[in-house]
Amino acid sequence: MLKTVIFALLPIIVTILLGMWAAHHGDFDEKDSNKLIKLIMNYALPMNVFAGIWGTPRKIIVEDIPLALWLLGSMFICYIVLSFVQTKIMKTSTNVATLRALSVADPSVPFIGSAVLPLIFGENLSAINIGISSLIINVVLLPFVFAALVSGDGNAKQDITIGARLMNSLKKPLVLSALLGFVLALLGLQMPTELESTFTVLGKSSGGVAMFATGIILFSKKIHFNKTIAISVLGKNVLFPAIVWGLMVIAGMPLSLQRIVIITLAIPTATMPTNLAIQYQVDESEMASIQLWSTVLSFVTLSSVMLMLG
Questions:
Q1: Other C-beta atoms within 10 Å of 124: how many?
Q2: Among residues 195, 203, 220, 298, which one has the fewest Cβ atoms lying within 10 Å of its Cβ?
Q3: Which structural domain range is residue 159 located in?
Q4: CA dihedral 48, 52, 54, 55 (to 10 degrees)
Q5: What pTM was estimated for this model as a whole?
Q6: Would residue 62 count as lying in a domain?
């Protein structure tokens, strides 16, 4: 099992380091990483997710409803609780509290998940997982996040409602592709096997390109380490998945469900908090540092979770 874990994570380590080296060498910069992210999120990953979900039999998708409920409940409750603790108890500003809570509640499923999950769970189940996680993040979490950021920014325009934010999220290619894939699969319109390569030729590049872009982003930011960052990284990589794991054990959930939920939640923090920090000029360095250390330490924490779950 240790050998499997090592060879599952090794491509991620190497590809991120290649991205950092390319940025150090001057071949790519932050603007290039933004273009790569657009390629991943608007083209490659939507095609891969659409093909994976549409190619999954309806019976299997229906059986994955508990997966969706556990991921939804875990991410949303984690975000709400941490936001409340930060703003009401620790008296942290709304914007900072929102991004810190999001950095713990939001695993990098479309990026790191698209590289590591297929190696463990196969293409179809991974596509369903990525699709569900993308819907939760874009349709549930982000409207609340944007509303909080706008309310906490005195200079921001407040004429954009949560409903408008939700509609904008629903227009994203990744969200649309996941929804369309689920609809077609649930209607029983199985994808012809001859069409699979039409979507996967570009789609399968999403994991590698995402890791490369992550390396560029991490090299481009000012990184530091302090107590606040350490607590956020510990919460994201260890405490959050550990608490959910304990709840699943108490609830008597099947081990197969525990595996995919906990490994998903143990994936390091997403790029979204860093991107929003840059957009709203809120502790950019702290969010980038959380992302870097969460990613680096995940080689230990994520592999430990994978070993413990078998």
A1: 18
A2: 195
A3: 2-223
A4: 130
A5: 0.79
A6: yes
Q: Print burial letters for 69-101: b (CB count within 10 Å at least 16), e (below 16).
A: ebbbebbeebbeebbeebbeeeebebbbbbbbb
Judged by phi (left if over 0) then psi (alpha if -120 to 50, else beta), residue 28 lies in beta
In 10 A of CB 262, how many CB atoms? 21
Q: Which H or E element spans position 100?
A: helix 94-105
Q: How many CA atoms lie within 13 A of 44 on its CB side?
A: 20
**Is the distance from CB of 298 to CB of 266 less than 8 angstroms?**
yes
For residues 190-203, give the mean pLDDT: 80
Does a structural domain hold residue 11?
yes
Q: What is the pLDDT of residues 128-171, one digit of tens each?
A: 888 888 888 877 887 788 778 766 555 545 555 656 666 776 77
The two structure tokens encoding residue 73: 């409940």
| SS3 at position 192 | coil
Residue 291 exposure: Cα atoms within 13 Å on the Cβ side: 32
DSSP 107: B
Per-residue model confidence (pLDDT) at position 35: 87
Q: Based on the structure, what is the number of domains in the chain? A: 1
Instruction: Tell me, yes or no, whether 205 lies in a domain.
Output: yes
Distance CA 129, CA 75 (A): 14
19: tokens are 């991205």
Burial class (CB in 10 A: 0-12, 13-18, 19+), 297: middle
